[in-house]
Amino acid sequence: MRKVRGPDCEPPMAAVFWALLMNQNLLRRLSVLLAVVAVVYAALACWHTVGDFDTGWQMATGRWALAHRQIPGTDVLSYTTAGAVWHYPSLAGVLFYLIFSATGYAGLGSFCALASGLLMAWILYRSPGRGLAIASLAILAVPSLAHRLTPRADLFTTVLFALVLIELWRHHRNPEHRLWSLPILFLLWANLHPGYVAGLALLAAYCAVELLELPWPARRAAALARLRSAAPWLVAAGVATLINPWGWEMLRSAGLLTASAGHQSGFDFRSHITEWTAVRITPRAMLQAFDLSNPESSYWWLLAATVIAALAALWQRRMGALLLLVAASLVSVRFIRFQGIFALVVIVVGGEVLAGSFEPLQSRGDRFFRSRWVQVAVIAAMLLLVGYRVTELASDRTYVHGGDVVDFGAGESWWYPERAASFILHEKLPGNIFQPFNIGGFTALRLGPQYPEYIDGRSINGELFEEQERLLHAPPDGLLWREVADARGIQTILLSLARNGGLQDVALPAFCQSREWAPVYMDEVSVVLLRRNAQNEPLISRLALDCRNVHFSAPADTGRAAQYQFHANAGAVFYVLSRDEEAEQHWKQAEALFPNDPNVHIYLAQLYTQQRRVNEAEAQYLAALRSRQSATAAYGLGRLYGAEHRWSEAEGAISLAAELELHPANQYKALAQVQLHLNKPAQAEANLLKAERAGPAASDPTANDFRAQIAEGRAEVARQSGNLSQAIALQQEATRQTPQSIGRWQKLAALATAANQQGIAAEAASHAQSLEAAAKP
Questions:
Q1: Three-state SS letters, 11-53
Q2: Quick check: is 709 in a domain?
């Protein structure tokens, strides 16, 4: 017999919980909570130390503008291109410099965090979409936006693009909404950052959105009415961009600041600047979506959400929304730089398209409960994701594991050569100073105007950029350094030794042993050298140091992140100097601070590989890959397997590296070499073709050797295929590219001998012998 519940009996707790969970008012409150969480998350994601490459020169330009009461129209920061035409809006630099002057780097970081939080709040408040869909997309978009909301002028392009997009989309959804704010926004935009051209493209896209409504008779009149209403404001916005110090000329200059300008001027900057690189869409790369500790995984979820929103727009026959979503996603795949703009389009347009999908169903029954469960599941997932991500940010694991140059909290990045700059100023070292592209912005602010800089992030001068690259790859006692130093009056060199964006480009041992340059200062992130001459001899005799016994002092900051950065970078410098025991000690201390850091595992693996401690090196590479799959770890592991003739394992590891690497030319080339050892000439030929397509530009200092390796690989493919005459021709091409390579001449001689072409064999052998004789001391 069923027991009947009396009036005073309490319902089970599960039923109470269920009733509360399914209560529509509670779900609405949770959606609001999710929006608040998105705002806080956006602010925290941007609250980190300042380490951007371009911040310094922009503030230095602002400082000059304030000091001279005018906007500079020429290069006023460098000695290499002094007086050259340079049109760049200075309002952002002025603003940043005023904040910096009052509050330092901490104020700049806090400004960006505040701007990010306010921008997210405005997006969620003003966008046509409401509720769960837009709040969830906003959370997923935070990492992509955080990359653009750093203290550089580009921050204002991200902010203003969002504001303009919201206004246009509100007008598209509600013709009563007026666009009077557009001229004001574009006036500011044209004087803050050249990215206003993206705003002009957005205006054109809006017109296309309305025109795509015309094929449907029921929508045609409304679309035309919206266009007529918007037209005066769109025209006024375009005209407002001409109110800048250079009028129409600014538009041309903005075009020159794109990455394609470097290619047109004879040097392809896109191969050197990551943000102008395309996203690698491979199965292995897409698996990053499931690595929640990696903020970049959110980009893949945004792409997935875009697909869903695009399908919904297609179903609803909203071709304009479909156009914006598809165009933004394609641009973000082509150029990493535009992932922030893509994220904004997904939030505003995709969020509004998807908003209806998350609206509660009013009917009862299974559909009702399924809808509630979807909402509850999404809210719970987003809250858990944000909680996890914020914990990773606050503990610095996000920045450490990602190999970033910033840490959580306000202040100056560890990688800026602050102490080296203080040393140069204190000792009054002679100029001019050579410094590479990456730290040029810092030196423009920190050492200018007393010491003009050699190059910085403003440069679109292909010849100067190429000269810098050639210098960094040239021996310091060689003719090139001597000629450039004489021509440009270079007396001092400042080089970054930061393991990210510095040390890999510096031949530190060669500089330490140089006869023409003397190291006079070194810490774990920088080195200063003086040219050896009579003028500098008194300074050198007093300041010169020996790289074999230099030691570094631990930072005063006892925080875990600061200590980690010190030990990780000190280990890297000692490793380059062949002081292996000290390198291992520092890396072990860094590992103790962040045990799951994949980067330290890779450092130790490289050290153990060099020391032929194969099992330990393999264990470190595998530990790095377990923590986070990366091209560096996979490639290193593959090379280790190759050195041990474990060709099948090497093939798998290098194949993984080729899928993950942004510039996979070397990975494809190495994969082809492994496949030749496995007697897979067809696969090797296919990967050599991929390597050639992804290889360096002709102006790159490494281009000749790279092309020689490709030709040599194809020669081996031809040999394994039984075509010795083609193999000889390809090996001859390798020797033409690198005529000083003894090994390639010897291989040509061996191929010619096997083909019974004695004349070619004798000539190649003679070349090899001559080179060997010349190489002997």
A1: CCHHHHHHHHHCCHHHHHHHHHHHHHHHHHHHHHHCCECECCC
A2: no
